[in-house]
Amino acid sequence: MDHSDSIDVAATPEAVFELVSDLPGMGRFSPENTGGDWLGGVSAPALGARFRGTNANGSKTWTTAARVTAFDPPSRFSFAVTFLGLKIATWSYEIAATPTGSRVTESWLDQRSTFVKRFASTVENREDFTRESVRHTLVALKAELERS
Asked: For residue 117, what is the DSSP state?
């Protein structure tokens, strides 16, 4: 299952890129991610940079590993997520200039194996939850960018 959603924001592509590539700060916008830390002495996003994400859903908490797979300011940022070495998903943000600011598209590529889908899910219906989560994140990003 893959899912993408877009939203127009009254902000420059550079401002959008700065927010979506700030993985430690994404917990402000996501209903599930709570932040995390760059690894290996890295303190900012870059191609190949590694990140430990922290997440919560109800009483469940867990960490994931992520690696930045695309870093093309101000138009594209992607990262691949694993859990215990198993592929989970790739998250991508595409940013395009518009006459009134930017259009940001958030995409989720589900890479979970059948085993992970069946026995290691943190929510009952990951696909539906992720569709709602992506919309929530985009609306929260828009509010933050347009408040500035």
From this structure: H
Topology of domain 2-147, CATH = Alpha-D-Glucose-1,6-Bisphosphate; Chain A, domain 4 (3.30.530)
Measured on CA atoms in the order 26, 31, 32, 34, is the torsion positive or negative? Answer: positive
3-state helix, strand, coil in the chain (%, to 5): 30, 45, 25
pLDDT range class, residue 80, cuts 50, 70, 90: very high
Enter the pTM of the model. Answer: 0.91
Radius of gyration of the chain measured on its C-alpha atoms = 15
Q: Judge contact between 53 and 68, C-beta under 8 A.
A: no
Torsion of CA 75, 134, 108, 3, to 10 degrees: -110
All structural domains of the chain with their residue ranges:
2-147
Encode pLDDT of 22-72 as tens digits. Answer: 999 999 999 999 999 999 999 999 999 999 999 998 888 989 999 999 999
What is the SS3 assignment for 45?
coil
31 CB-contact burial (10 Å; exposed 0-12 / middle 13-18 / buried 19+): middle
